[in-house]
Design a protein that fits this description.
Layout: E1 9-17, H1 21-32, E2 40-48, H2 56-62, E3 70-74, H3 80-90, E4 96-100, E5 104-106, H4 110-121, E6 125-127, E7 130-134, E8 158-159, E9 166-170, H5 171-177, H6 191-201, E10 206-208, E11 214-218, H7 225-244, H8 249-270, H9 274-277, H10 279-299
Parallel strand pairs: 1-2, 1-4, 2-3, 6-10, 7-11
Antiparallel strand pairs: 4-9, 5-11, 6-9, 8-10
Helix pairs in contact: 7-8, 7-10, 8-10
């Protein structure tokens, strides 16, 4: 059901952060240039998940620099789901909640594009795209490989899941259906994927806003074969976990077996492309093998707690 947009729409922009002051500062600087339409009433909420409150001073310094309210909220319970759920509670009274990662920056029209898609479709959530860049142009090949390549979708196309790096959520829908981020995946990652799957299971719809752009620089330290391969392996485990937590084990076993085996097989078939396409072609195969192995391993209980403290 579409919301009436007669009065100004209150939108909370949530940033969950953990000990990333330099990245967070770049994001907050980009929010200074954000253009919000006359029907929008935005505010920024920074959820600091560091027990040391490392972001507090920085956030307070921006409270007089941004043209709308900036709130600092400390969530001492460690784990991404706790920070995200705290953002939902902190946004009580707002109409929408937009999430963006603390290591990204936003396009000036980012929020307007998300809201335009929400107005046109009445979706429970609207996902936007991510544009990646690198610090060194010689590393650009990584972004064209299976390790980092982003799927593209047409504007307003349906989405059955999303992530919190760039998304707008209808808080009224979330409240009616009591949707929350699952703390079972406290340090594993994937609680956002599961959250949006739950939204769809509750009857919500998702849409894609092709012009709601955010940007992320892939740092040199991440552009290694080990880091990129383990990242894909963790993505595979995440996929297994989302099925195991919501479906019967028999279904999860069939799903993970078929999906994981197919990905590993396809990855092996892609490996010879490295002889023609070079390291980017080889990376396509390695990425698929790693992700497929993660799906299979995840079903049997493998964990990769990337966000453990």
């Amino acid at each position: 059901m579409q919301r009436s947009f007669v009065s100004r729409i209150k939108v909370a922009i949530a940033v969950c952060t953990y000990a990333r002051q330099e990245d967070l500062e770049r994001l907050l600087i980009s929010l200074q240039d954000l253009r919000a339409g006359p029907d929008l009433c935005p505010r920024v909420i920074v959820i600091d998940n560091d027990s040391r409150k490392s972001a507090e001073t920085l956030v307070q310094s921006f409270q007089a620099r941004l043209p709308w309210p900036v709130d600092y909220v400390h969530e001492p319970q460690a784990g991404i789901p706790f920070a995200r759920n705290r953002a939902i509670r902190a946004a009580a009274g707002d109409d929408y909640l937009a999430f963006v990662d603390d290591d990204e920056t936003v396009d000036p029209q980012w929020l307007n594009a998300l809201m335009a898609a929400a107005q046109k479709t009445g979706a429970a959530f609207v996902q936007g795209p991510l544009t990646m860049t690198v610090e060194d142009a010689r590393d650009s090949w990584w972004l064209a490989s299976g390790f980092f390549k982003q799927k593209s979708f047409s504007d307003l196309s349906p989405r059955s899941e999303s992530w919190t790096n760039n998304v707008l959520i209808d808080l009224a829908f979330v409240a009616r259906h009591n949707c929350r981020f699952d703390a079972t995946l406290r340090f594993d990652g994937g609680s956002d994927t599961l959250f949006f799957q739950d939204v769809v299971a509750a009857g919500g719809t998702g849409r894609f806003a092709a012009n709601a752009m955010v940007y992320e620089i892939q740092k040199k330290s991440r552009l290694t074969w080990k880091w990129a391969t383990l990242r894909q392996y963790r993505y595979g485990i995440t996929r297994a976990n989302t099925v195991l937590l919501r479906k019967p084990r028999s279904y999860a076993g069939l799903y993970c077996g078929v999906r994981g085996t197919a990905m590993v097989g396809l990855g092996i078939l892609k490996l010879p492309r490295g002889l023609v396409l070079g390291r980017a072609g080889l990376a396509d195969g390695v990425a698929l093998i790693a992700r497929g192995t993660g799906v299979l391993s995840g079903f049997f209980g493998a964990r990769r707690r990337e966000y453990a403290r």
